[in-house]
Amino acid sequence: MISITGLHKSFGSATVLRGIDLEISQGEVVSVLGSSGSGKSTLIRCINGLEKIDGGRVTVDGFDVSKPRELADARKRSGTVFQLFNLYPHMTAVQNIALAPVEVLNVPRKDAEAEARRLLQQVGLSERADAYPAQLSGGQRQRVGICRALAMKPSYLLLDEVTSALDPEMTAEVLSILANIAKQGTTMVFVTHEIEFARSISTRIAFLDKGQMIADLPTEDFFSDKGMAMPRVAQFLSKMRKD
Amino acid sequence: MPTILSWLNVKRSGGGWGTTPLKNAAAVDTDLLILLSETGFTIEARRLQFDLSILAKHIPFLLEGTWLTFKVCLISVIGSLVLGLLVAAARTSSSTFLNRLSAVYVDMFRNIPFIVQLFFFYFGLPEIGIYIDALSTGIIALSIAGGAFTSDVIRSGILAIEPGVIEAAQVSGLKRATIFRRIALPIALRTSVRPLGSVFINLILTSSVLSTITLNELTGSAKIVASQTFRPFEVYFVLLVAYAALTWSVSIVIGALHRHLNRNQAEGVA
Ligand SMILES: Nc1ncnc2c1ncn2[C@@H]1O[C@H](COP(=O)(O)OP(=O)(O)OP(=O)(O)O)[C@@H](O)[C@H]1O
Ligand SMILES: [Mg+2]
After folding, report:
1. Is the CB of A52 under 6 A from ligand 1?
2. Measured from the CB, is residue A13 less than 6 Å from ligand 1?
3. Which ligand 1 atom minimizes the distance to the CA of A39?
4. Domain ABC transporter spans what residues (chain A) (predicted)?
């Protein structure tokens, strides 16, 4: 379980997260929605320990991410997929995927690479297994990014706008892969602007507004009268649908 | 004109100002021509023979010097690379103490003329009882000075890495040292090949200063040959060509290495 209680985060004098409470259990797919600047990326970065938190508590399966000793264990349980892929440019797809299993989980290199190839095959990239990131298209790079996160067998997958750097065609190919992963029961925290997709794969929607979680509802409720009853949510949804 | 080269000399008529009459005028077969004289100056054109053959018997000695330069430079390049890597690691580490220490080292050795550093090591240290032979002093001094520049290049290479790439490594649970060794360093070295090449070429050029501490490397041996033959023109011409060839071949190797290491990267990088 990912458990967030009273999370505060500021950058200098700007408070970005103001007391977030959120619990994510195994098997859930939680989409985090909210307008630009509402703090979605910052929330993800507080869960994977990339930002120091200023108040409250974030634990992953009981491991407190603000304690250096426990961060490593917390990070072993979650995997992150980035908007701009962030692949290691000097390594092939297989090497990108196998690095952490070998170095962190001490999997023998041969096994880790075989597993990497299996993952790549699942996302339709067997042919490109030995290509370098610069030799791949954006959609292909993101599929490698997803495999890299999955290779650590994380309990939780954190995804921050993983399709917003992709054109519509590539977005579709990446989303269909994510839908598959969701179906297999992987827990996901999914920051996105793809409202319809969020609706189709999420069990729950968390809505951030100016650093506060103003809605945390089951998907059907969020997109029904219940959600629409909240002016900020209604405003956001109508704006997103217009775009 | 049958001669290969003309040599101009300016002389004020009546006074000895500005002339350096060739010491060995007889030996060099001068053919003096008064070209013109105006406002008290005489311009003489001496036609000299440019004759490399007189260097023939000194070739083994010059080759010895070349070999010494090669050896000193090779060891010093390796030395600066090792030192540069360690210092770059220290400068990008999370320890404030290591940060400061390495920054002081880099600033100090980049901001002092190499010849002063060298004299300090060779002539200064014996005063406090530390004696190091000329060869070791040369290698140590070159490595320390080169290490300062090398670490700076590697550090910039590390700082230029997309932060997201390092973050991806962090969230996957890799340890700091592993990230440095497997991610940061390989990426930084790939982008730093060319600037590192410039540092190493500079190191080769700087190695000529070692002749001032009795080391008969390429420049030192050339000086000796020049004073023995009284043919500074030919000797230093050969020296010039030798250094140019040395550094030119290094830059060829660097270019090839850069292309090889970046062969799988985006067009812009290669
Ligand atoms: N490193 C930082 N330093 C200073 N301010 C920051 C930093 N990171 C984020 N912010 C600020 O925090 C606020 C929230 O940023 P965040 O990236 O979390 O928003 P977001 O909801 O992900 O937005 P978007 O939908 O555009 O990605 C923004 O106002 C942003 O300017
Ligand atoms: Mg964001």
Report:
1. no
2. no
3. 18
4. 2-235
ipTM: 0.94
- Cross-chain residue pair A49–B171, CB shorter than 8 Å: yes
Give B261 Cα–ligand 1 centroid separation in angstroms. Answer: 36
Q: What is the pLDDT of residues A192-208, one digit of tens each?
A: 988 999 999 999 999 99
pLDDT digits (tens, 9 = 90+) for A11-54: 999 999 999 999 999 999 999 999 999 999 999 999 999 999 99
Name the percent of chain B lying above pLDDT 70. Answer: 80
Of A13, A17, A33, A41, the residue with max ligand 1 atoms within 8 A of its CB, to mutate for a pocket test, comes to A41
Where is pLDDT greater, at B109 or A227?
A: B109
Q: In A, residues 75-94, which contact B (CB 8 Å cutoff)?
A: 75-76, 78-80, 82, 84, 86-90
Contact A103 B182 (CB under 8 A): yes
The answer to whether residue B269 sits within a structural domain is: no
Task: Determine the atom of ligand 1 nearest the C-alpha atom of A191.
Answer: 22
B163 and B99 within one domain: yes
Query: Within this chain, do residues B75 and B42 fall inside the same structural domain, yes or no?
Result: no
| B42 and B108, same domain (yes or no) | no
Same domain flag for B100 and B171 = yes
CA dihedral B196, B197, B199, B205 (to 10 degrees): 170
pLDDT tens, position by position, B25-42: 433 344 444 444 445 555
How far A186 CA lies from chain B's nearest CA (Å)?
Answer: 17
A21 CA distance to ligand 1 middle (Å): 19
CATH (one of 3.40.190.10, 3.40.50.880, 3.40.50.300, 3.30.870.10) for A2-77+154-242? 3.40.50.300
Q: Which chain B residues are closer than 8 Å to A103 by Cβ?
A: 174-175, 178, 182
Ligand lying nearest the CA atom of residue A43: 1
Decide: pTM greater than 0.90: no
* Within-domain flag for B94: yes
A36 lines ligand 1 (CB under 6 A): yes
